[in-house]
């Protein structure tokens, strides 16, 4: 899979990070060898690394996929996920955990993900020297892929 375009007002560096993450996720999801029945689920743990300057951010995503329906050569999954990340830079350390839901559409004929959406709520802890901060983040990610 190759990503040609990412839409949005993003810096070239952020665009590259997002491109690498999408490619990594797309290439690392392993669907079960046996066909699933409607209502069956499978789970997967995806370790991801996102470059952040000189220090990579390590992310662990645990995702449960539940098959909801098959229609027009596409499999529709709901998903629930948990995330954890750890990132240290200079005298700072960032830890975060989160959870969310979403959906995924898998093209059975061409064998790749054509659409996904994720809503995630994160709780972050930032330790910077003697100062500790907590923050909450809400993210919504959408992905649509087309073959031309």
Summarize the structure.
The chain is mainly beta.
Descriptive account of the structure:
- The protein has 148 residues and is mostly beta strands.
- 11% of the residues lie in helices and 62% in strands.
- The chain has one domain (12-144).
- The protein has one helix spanning 12-28; strands spanning 41-52, 55-71, 74-89, 92-107, 112-128, 131-144.
- A hairpin with a 2-residue loop joins β1 (41-52) and β2.
Features:
single chain, six-stranded antiparallel β-sheet, globular, mainly beta, 6 strands, 148 residues
Tell me the layout of helices and strands.
Blueprint: H1 12-28, E1 41-52, E2 55-71, E3 74-89, E4 92-107, E5 112-128, E6 131-144
Antiparallel strand pairs: 1-2, 2-3, 3-4, 4-5, 5-6
Number of helices: 1
Please mark out the parts with pLDDT under 50 across 5 or more consecutive residues, or reply none: none
Q: Roughly what fraction of the amino acids lie in strands?
A: over 45%
Largest sheet: 6 strands, antiparallel
Radius of gyration, in Å, reads: 17 Å
Shape: globular
Order of helices and strands: HEEEEEE
- What is the rounded distance between the termini? 13 Å
Oligomerization: single chain
Class by helix and strand content?
mainly beta
Mean pLDDT: 83
Quantity of strands, as a count: 6
- Give me the side-by-side strand order of the main sheet: 1-2-3-4-5-6
How many domains? 1
Helix content: 10-25%
